[in-house]
Design a protein that fits this description.
The protein has 99 residues and is of the alpha+beta class. 12% of the residues lie in helices and 14% in strands. It contains two helices and four strands. The chain binds calcium ion (2 copies). The site of one calcium ion has 8 residues, from loops.
Length: 99
């Protein structure tokens, strides 16, 4: 879809400019899907419900935490498995009942 078509699809002026120059709709910001090439539109968003922040950029389902597979590029979802209490990084919500 061309930038112009995208803009008209968004309606009004509710658009977000990615650092890459791509234009997305404001409703696509923090919707859990990467619309900017570098996930920029999802950076800094609070993760909804049953998800955790991954790489400080994206949210992954917390059923993917400590499942033995690295879902985060840096493996943070597998990093603190088996540790207790303050082993978890600040801001990450890792519940005990995910198994
Ligand atoms: Ca998005
Ligand atoms: Ca995982």
């Amino acid at each position: 879809m061309s930038q112009t078509a995208r803009l008209s699809a968004c309606g009004s002026d509710d658009v977000y400019l990615c650092a890459s120059g791509d234009v997305i709709c404001m409703v696509q910001v923090c919707d859990g899907v990467a619309d900017c090439p570098d996930w920029e539109d999802e950076a800094g968003c609070a993760c909804p419900g049953d998800t955790i922040l991954c790489d400080d950029v994206i949210c992954i389902d917390n059923t993917n935490v400590c499942d033995g597979v690295k879902d985060c590029a840096d493996g943070t979802d597998e990093e603190h498995c088996g540790e207790s209490g303050d082993g978890a990084a600040a801001g990450r919500v890792v519940t005990e009942d995910i198994l």
